[in-house]
Amino acid sequence: MDADRTRRRQIFAALSPRFGKLLPPAFLKNPGLAGVERLHPLTEGIHKPAWSNYALSITTMLKSQYHDQTYFNPDGTWWMHYSPKAGSLDIAVNRQKFVYSDAVEADAAHIIGKGERGTDDPRNGLALSKSVHWAFDQGIFTISDQYEIILHPEARRASSQAFPLLETDRKRITLPTDPAYYPHQEALAWHREERFGRFAKG
Fold first, then answer.
1. Which end of the chain is more exposed for a tag (fewer CB within 10 A), N or C?
2. Among positive and negative, which fits the CA dihedral 99, 100, 106, 107?
3. Alpha-carbon gap, residue 158 to 12, rounded angstroms
4. H/E/C letters for each residue in 154-197?
């Protein structure tokens, strides 16, 4: 049996006694199991370890208020159109809204970026207007554990005009109806540590 397959079997054998059980966050960060460094809490998507030629796990939800669509290319690759929340399309930060048929002024913003191996789990996403999405990626603002907007102090020194985001500091974002889809605390913590203030660092 090749080394890749052997390692996979070891990982699943170590984790199988925990399947279907509630586990504390500390276990996800440090499982204390041979061959398992950590478990990613944002489980929606595909995980392929660097040491493997194949995906270790592919996880999706059977029921979701999101209407994601997966498209397959002729060469076997695929890409996903990741949509904001279906129905109300509530914008998390500034509550502006424009929807006319397929014309929607909204982006599904990843909290942990795709380039940083962020997943398509809805808890790693926010529905944001396009300019607010840009500001979020630049670290002009972030979101607290209490789901409040934290505007970076340097943002007020910018030359700006008609930029309502600057008036949202300490206001609570609009959250999904179902708490199961609230932004994940670990994703928000990542954004505060890795992205907040990015624009001011040159």
1. C
2. positive
3. 51
4. HHHHCCCCCCHHHHCCCCECCCCCCHHHCCCHHHHHHHHHHCCC
Taking only the tens place, the pLDDT of each residue in 79-92 is: 544 444 433 334 67
CB atoms within 10 A of CB 156: 10
Domains contained in the chain, number: 2
Query: What does pTM read for this prediction?
Result: 0.57
Which residues neighbour 166 within 8 Å (Cβ) at sequence distance 6 or greater?
A: 151, 155, 156, 160
Phi, then psi, of 59 in degrees rounded to 5: -125, 135
162: confidence class by pLDDT, cuts 50, 70, 90: confident
Predicted pLDDT of residue 71: 56
Q: Is residue 82, in this structure, part of any structural domain at all? A: no
With respect to residue 44, please indicate whether it lies within any of the assigned structural domains.
yes
Residues 128-141: tens digit of each pLDDT = 888 899 999 999 99
Alpha-carbon distance of 123 to 110, in angstroms, equals: 9
| Residue ranges making up the domain that contains 110 | 88-201
User: Do 119 and 42 fall within a single domain?
Assistant: no
